[in-house]
Amino acid sequence: MPFSRDSWNAPVGCGRVTRINAVLRHQFQKLTVLFALEMLAIILVFQVFSSVECSLTDSETACRALRGATIRILCVGIGLGLFIWFRPHLRRRLVAAADNPDGEARRWWAVHLIGLGLIFVPWLRADPVSLNAEFQAHLATLLAGAVLAAIGALFLLLPRRDLPGLLREGGAGLALVVLVALLIPDLADALAPLWWAFRGLILTTFYGVAVVLAALGFHVVLSPETATIGTEGFFVEMAGTCSGIEGFALTAGFFAIYSVLMRDTLRLGRFWLIVFPLALLVSWVFNIFRIAALIAIGARLSPELAVNGFHSFAGWLFFTLLALGVIWVVQARPSLHRAAATSRGTGAPAPLREDLNAALIAPFIVFMLSGLLVQSLWQSPALGYPLQAGLMAAALWMFRKPLLALDWRLDPVALMAGLVVGAGWILFSRGGAAPAGLSKLTGAALAGWILCRILGTTLLVPMIEEGFFRGYLLRLLSGPAAWQTALSVAVTSLAFALLHGRVIEAGLAGLVFALVALRRGRLGDAVLAHAVANGLVALTALLTGDWTLI
């Protein structure tokens, strides 16, 4: 029996409606918990209780793709959970939509259970050694099972008749959450070099584990030269898999989703400047205890279980629970929230595509994700730039209304600043190899690539990067005090520099763009300066044929 959204506002005295609503709510919660437990069981079976090592299989690429897809599904599932939880009207609509006719429900239950059975068939039939050796033979079974189980679960939670309406109601906000969640594993990959770049991070983690084990009464044997630590015959080498970078990425990703969903009531300054660093610290300390616990398990209980506990899936699972726990604490602290913003005249919030914050964040997410896409699809990623430019243009077009409402008057100071930055970038260029594969393009293909590259570099990238770094981050981190402004400029300039590789030149460019934006409080000035700088560089690249400049 379907219900409209208004049925949730029925008086308590309407006993039959209230009882039916309670039954549907319980049914929806039960299904959600069941599917979450199934996901947990799959992760535990294949990455904790048995060891699937992609490097030992006969299809390493497919294995890593499947593992990566599983991690992304986990992140997207959590992101969607946050979206639904903090959108009560959508949650009520979902619960009401869960009223599946009995015949249809039985059909989707059959599809889901068949898929679940196919997923576990390889584990039931093979020991861990043969799982690795014969992985390619099991791949089709695993993929078919995953698809069937996912389809069955989807239509048990969300009948087909309600899917279009719920997607429309989720709107651009739903798409933004999915994009951020999809990017979390890539953020972890981007942060991974920090483990090796900062020796102090390695040493503090290494000796932190030793202190915890010693406090538990173990005789610790450690070798700092090889980063090896252990006790009672069980030793591990603390490589990048022990870094806990997954925790940093998950915390950053889920915090970003939470801050966007709760932007109307969350005190964003306190959240990002106080809670976020503390959450990273908690994640790092948690990782020390996790490693110490696994070494203790390996020494006293089961070496196999301990070794499997170091695998990436186990880490992702533990750190996901930790990140959600921190969000739960934040949600429960009144000091981190303020009263809800006064609604507009109609009482309805503006669509997300008209929200300025979303307009400053979402195109940057598309920019980063499109870069990863061309890296994956093209052996010579530079050749995929037209696709990346098209996706960036589409993202900016979607949010054109709040972006066009900005002040775009010409500023001579911004114009001159852009010329100086562009000239400096060209002057201090170190040169390098031409983009791989570019020499294969001729005629119209080469002309089209050059046009996309110049337009993307000169128009699209400045708008997207300045919107995120100077429009959103700089404004978010700034405060009334001079030191707060200085700190926000330093942080955003450093982040901008790390994105571009040439740290010193890009850092100075970011500093100039930030000062231009702060001069009159106009994002348009920073975009203009960045566009002029990039335009000068692109023009030089076109005249000289040196595409390494951009």
Automatic annotation (TrEMBL):
Main location: membrane
Cellular compartment(s): Cell membrane
Pfam families: Exosortase_EpsH (PF09721), Rce1-like (PF02517)
TM regions (residue ranges): 31-49, 69-86, 107-125, 137-158, 170-188, 194-222, 234-259, 271-297, 309-330, 356-375, 382-400, 412-429, 441-461, 506-521, 527-549
GO CC, alphabetical: plasma membrane
Source species, domain of life: Bacteria
EC number(s) given by UniProt: 3.4.22.-
Entries under InterPro entries matching the protein: Exo/Archaeosortase_dom (IPR026392), Exo_VPEID (IPR026420), Exosortase (IPR019127), Prenyl_protease-related (IPR014346), Rce1/LyrA-like_dom (IPR003675)
GO BP terms in the entry: CAAX-box protein maturation; proteolysis
Record's keyword annotation contains Membrane: yes
Keywords, comma-separated and alphabetical: Cell membrane, Hydrolase, Membrane, Protease, Transmembrane, Transmembrane helix
Occurrences of domain CAAX prenyl protease 2/Lysostaphin resistance protein A-like (ranges): 449-535
Membrane topology, from the record: Multi-pass membrane protein
GO molecular function terms listed in the Swiss-Prot or TrEMBL record: endopeptidase activity
NCBIfam families (UniProt xref): exo_archaeo (TIGR04178), exo_VPEID (TIGR04162), pepcterm_CAAX (TIGR03008)
Protein name: Exosortase E/protease, VPEID-CTERM system
Gene assigned in the entry: xrtE
